[in-house]
Structure formats: C-alpha cells, structure tokens
Amino acid sequence: MTVRGVIALIPDACTSCMLCVRECPTWCISLQAHPEQVVDEEARRPRTVNVLDTFAIDFGLCMYCGICVDVCPFDALEWAPDHDYGAATRAGLVQPIERLAAWLAPP
Q1: Angle at 78 between CA 31 and CA 48, to 5 degrees
Q2: Which residue from 19, 28, 31, 45 could staple onto 62, CB 3.0 to 4.6 Å apart?
C-alpha cells in the first residue's frame, strides 16, 4: 500500500530528463539543469550528462495525482509518508531541492 503524504525527491537519482515537468497537469514542477562532460577512461570520447541545478514543487498548485512519481524512469520521485508542510505565505508552499530531499531523511 502506498502512503500518499508528500512528494519527495532523491536528488542523486534525478537525471533532469524533464518527464515529470512535461507530464504534470498543473505545471507545479520547475527544474533547471546544465550539461557537463563526463570522461570515462574506457570510453572513446567524453559523454555529456545533465546535472540538476534546481528542482522545486509548488504544493499550492499540486493536486497530488502522482503522475510525476509514476512517470519517473529513475525513481527520483516518491511518496513520503509525512504531510506537515504548512506555510504562512503562498511562497512558502514552493519546496526546493533541500526540502524535498529532507522528506525522506531518517528522523
């Protein structure tokens, strides 16, 4: 049984593929990344990968449908059991990478 509390991010698993952003029906996810070259000693040439810069979810817009969790091919998004993220202002409902990653941190 999946407990739907809040959507959490595992930053190391995110490849900045943008599937979650494109599939979100309310456009509540924002993501920015930059390309970097990774040199592998066994490869013929360097490989380019996207590195995550910013990732945020606006929980004032999110309708908790879970589409972003379902479409992520790298399991970088998942449901966390917590749901206490009240905010005094509308801007406080926009949760950045640090806060999204903290939802999965052990107490």
Answers
A1: 45
A2: 28
